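Appendix B, Record 12. Input sequence as logged:
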Amino acid sequence: MKRLLGYFLRGLVLTVPLVVTVWVCYGVFVKVDGWLGLSIPGAGFVTTLALITMIGLLGSSLLTRHAVSVFEDQLSRLPFVRLLYTSTKDLMGAFVGEKKGFSQPVLVTLGMDSQVKLLGFLTQPSAQRLGVDASVVVYVPHSYAWSGQMLVVPADRVKLLTSDSAEFMAFAVSGGVMDFPKID
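Logged structural output:
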């Protein structure tokens, strides 16, 4: 009976992540297909990817950079729209932009003699503009969530880690359940 229960639990560990992944992907495909009203499954998703790529191509062109700049300038004049647009743009830029914000993993020591440490990402190498000398800004992601905390920490309590930032983020967001990221 114990062996049977072990097989069942192992089956759950293998099946649940696969089912959740397939279910979410299927939901995304159906939703995007529904937005575009296409009857071929997945065609809306492929069309959306192609459209986003075309917008990226046009936005990178010398001819359209000025138009994008004017458009963003107009958006920045609308109070609520400015907040929503710039926050979303900064968040996307932190993950996939030219100046990725979560590229430097760090280990932060809390307190002078503390054995407690936090895993995070260096987002600003200096907090001097905040009026705090000899400090840095660190983002600490929450586990299993799209949120985190921003900390202003004395620079001498932050140890830079040499690790792949995507692996490090996955480790931090998983609550440490995933394998340790390779740290050189």
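The first strand starts at residue 105 and ends at 109.
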